[in-house]
Amino acid sequence: QTGWLKAQYKPEYMAALMTIECGNAEKVQIFIKDCKNPKKDKDRKYYPEKINVLVPNINHSRWDFYVPKGTTNIQFGFGAIKGAGKSAIASIIKSRTKAKKGQFKDFMSFLEAIDYSKVNKKVLENLIKCGAFDWTEHTRKSLFEVMATGIKLGQDAQVRKKSGQLSLFGATFAKPVLEIPDVGEWPLRTKMKFEKDALGFYITDHPINSYHEIIETCNTKTTDFIINALPTDSEFSVAGIISSANTILTKTGREMALV
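Above: the chain's sequence. Below: its structure in token form.
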């Protein structure tokens, strides 16, 4: 039954799997890889279509992963963002439904609308780091640097609105304007580190792509090729990035590095 569902309704099936395992970054990463790089079924010669997994989006994402109507894409779910509890996400979605046309117009309209008793600074940082505001066309670095100023403007606007404060001329105060200077983007390795901090894996790019020109000249093999196609006793090189390294002592007292 599950095999039939995956073959006939793969986007919906994979979205359901990701939702079930949204707290397990390792499994979600495997599912996303399966969507982007489907394996050929050698017996049936079946080629599953590639599925585009859309980045988190503050105007379109829900808690769960889902397939937007009329598409075969999967919209990334807020539930897989680290530190984003159900209470915070429910609050954001509630604020979004009250916005004009059910969407935030820009970064400042979002900061002006959310409930700060439920959405803390860490959640906001991770939303920026994972690309939930990329649609604003401001860089993640630019948004990150003005976030503190934006939060203060948003909170001040909420206080004035609650108190019904008016200007000297009887008109309501104008909506706060947040100046977002273009300070460029983080280097790819930094940007991807932050994305991994927020999600537990990379989704929009990979830090090793900064070195693709060097890698192409080194005759390297991919791990998939090594596992599936490389003859036994072959010599090869693999390009990678060290994510952790530590040295331990073996039972015989020799040093051994785990990388």
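The longest strand covers residues 246-249.
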